[in-house]
């Protein structure tokens, strides 16, 4: 089986590397606009060969699209225009717009919309590694719009990576992504900006930063090429989440300003409820 990876970064590269090791495919072809990414992917044996977009699609059995979400819809349509029986899947964290873009495509059933919930703050093929997906969740969206064979093959692929597949409609997926993932990154970016602004006057602040700060701000190292498109493509959901988040921040601000211990205790106790979900 031949796998083509369009976009050889952390996610695409890690999938390719592990599927090769586990013999799911016997060849991986890479497609990437960056010459540097091509060289790293070849040198690190993430891919076996680099081909042009059209050649790679035509030679493959499965095509993975792992590129920034603002370009996924366009590239997906171009891939579907070229396929015959090949299976196509993407890994982006925005699903509704992508699916809508190809709803009427005659090869729509060849496409499976997926979102593996895995990653790090690092990016590029040099960050790709085996084990990234083990024990994590993969979401398959609108599976009834894909062929049974395509869903089964992509589900098998993710099981081989050590993931559990769950199913969701695209609209719900994008709302949940905004609340659970996208707002976390915005919070981290904002905290990093606030601390760096403050550090101009108080240079010792980072010396006092403990593990809590480090874990909260870790996501601020994330790649702008990935996250700026996510924020703009999931705009309506993220704005709704931000309004709610800002309301909660203002509740804390008001309670602190007014020395309202009871209100602060109540807010913290409510937030502690997350332990029941995460434990």
Report a brief summary of the structure:
The chain has 279 residues and is an alpha/beta fold. Helix content is 53%, strand content 13%. It contains twelve helices and eight strands.
**Overall average pLDDT:** 93
Distance between the termini: 40 Å
Give Rg in angstroms.
21 Å
Unreliable residue runs: none
Main sheet, how many strands, which sense, barrel? 8 strands, mixed
**What string gives the helices and strands in order?**
EHEHEHEHEHEEHEHHHHHH
Number of helices: 12
Task: List how many beta strands DSSP finds.
Answer: 8
CATH homologous superfamily caption of the largest domain: NAD(P)-binding Rossmann-like Domain
How would you explain this protein's 3D organization?
- This protein folds into 2 domains: 2-168, 3-Layer(aba) Sandwich (Rossmann fold), CATH 3.40.50.720; 173-278, 6-phosphogluconate dehydrogenase C-terminal like domain (6-phosphogluconate dehydrogenase C-terminal fold, Orthogonal Bundle), CATH 1.10.3660.
- Helices cover 53% and strands 13% of the residues.
- It is built from 12 helices and 8 strands.
- Strand 1 (2-6), helix 1 (10-21) and strand 2 form a beta-alpha-beta unit.
- Helix 10 (235-257) packs antiparallel against helix 11.
- It is globular, with a radius of gyration of 21 Å.
Jot down its keywords.
6-phosphogluconate dehydrogenase C-terminal fold; 8 strands; Rossmann fold; 279 residues; single chain; alpha/beta
């Amino acid at each position: 089986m031949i796998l083509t990876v369009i976009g050889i970064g952390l996610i695409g590269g890690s999938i390719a590397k592990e599927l090769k090791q586990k013999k799911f495919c016997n060849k991986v072809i890479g497609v990437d606009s960056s010459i540097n990414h091509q060289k790293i992917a070849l040198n690190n044996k993430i891919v076996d060969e680099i081909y042009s977009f059209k050649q790679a699609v035509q030679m493959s059995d499965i095509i993975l699209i792992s590129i920034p979400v603002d370009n996924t819809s366009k590239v997906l349509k171009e891939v579907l225009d070229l396929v015959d029986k090949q299976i196509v899947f993407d890994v982006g964290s925005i699903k509704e717009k992508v699916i809508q873009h190809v709803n009427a495509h005659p090869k729509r059933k060849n496409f499976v919309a997926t979102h593996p919930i895995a990653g790090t703050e690092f990016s590029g093929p040099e960050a790709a590694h085996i084990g990234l997906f083990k024990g994590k969740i993969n979401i398959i969206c609108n599976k009834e719009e894909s062929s049974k064979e395509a869903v089964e093959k992509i589900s098998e692929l993710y099981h081989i990576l050590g993931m559990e597949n769950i199913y969701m409609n695209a609209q719900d997926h994008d709302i949940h992504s905004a609340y659970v993932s996208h707002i976390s990154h915005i919070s981290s970016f904002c905290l990093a900006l606030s601390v760096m602004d403050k550090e101009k006057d108080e240079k010792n602040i980072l010396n006092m930063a403990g593990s809590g700060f480090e874990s909260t701000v870790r996501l601020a190292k994330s790649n702008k090429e990935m996250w700026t498109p996510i924020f703009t493509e999931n705009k309506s959901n993220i704005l709704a989440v931000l309004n709610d988040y800002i309301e909660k921040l203002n509740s804390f601000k008001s309670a602190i300003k007014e020395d309202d211990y009871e209100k602060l205790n109540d807010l913290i106790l409510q937030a502690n409820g997350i332990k029941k979900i995460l434990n």
